[in-house]
Design brief:
This protein has 161 residues and is of the alpha/beta class. The protein is built from five helices and five strands, in the order βαβαβαβαβα. The protein is globular, with a radius of gyration of 17 Å.
Length: 161
């Protein structure tokens, strides 16, 4: 008896949402890739923990405000992803050190297929997260990492697909 073929899983392209200019290029690339292979885009936003242990109420208020800001940013980027891919992105909001949270998320969520990061082309380094991953984190990352130059236009990125 022939075995039934397993349905191929839908690839998921993870983009880290931050305030950098090059995040746009990473998102544009991930959306183009998702469109071309019928995949999905996932967005991760990491909240830096509040440092107010002495004033618990202040710390909790800061955490709540940070969460609201994260949700607002994610909503904007999620709408952009929907426009480009006609699909709803997967959203992750984490709290902690971005490097640890990113690697932990990739380790926990097995549907993530590829990490897409934008490289800062205006400074000496590609950015702190890329620098960390290339120096230490890549060996702990279970998925391939794509680094997209931050100086590419949307048209140049779209031409890749």
């Amino acid at each position: 008896m022939a075995k039934a073929k397993a349905k191929p899983k839908q690839p998921v392209f993870l983009v880290v949402v931050d305030d950098s200019e090059e995040m746009h290029q990473a998102l544009q690339f991930a959306c183009g890739r998702a469109r071309s292979v019928s995949g999905r885009v996932a967005l991760m936003y990491c909240i830096v923990p509040a440092e107010f242990e002495y004033w618990a109420g202040v710390g909790e208020l800061m955490r709540e405000e940070a969460r609201e800001e994260a949700e607002a940013k994610m909503a904007i980027h999620a709408d952009y992803v929907k426009t480009l891919t006609n699909g709803t992105p997967i959203l992750y909001v984490r709290e902690g050190d971005i490097r640890d949270e990113l690697l932990e998320l990739i380790d926990q969520e097995h549907e993530i297929s590829l990490l897409v990061l934008g490289a800062d082309t205006q400074s000496e380094t590609a950015g702190p997260l890329i620098t960390f991953l290339m120096a230490h984190g890549a060996s702990r990352c279970r998925v391939p990492i794509t680094v997209v130059p931050g100086n590419l236009s949307d048209e140049q990125l779209d031409a890749l697909f």
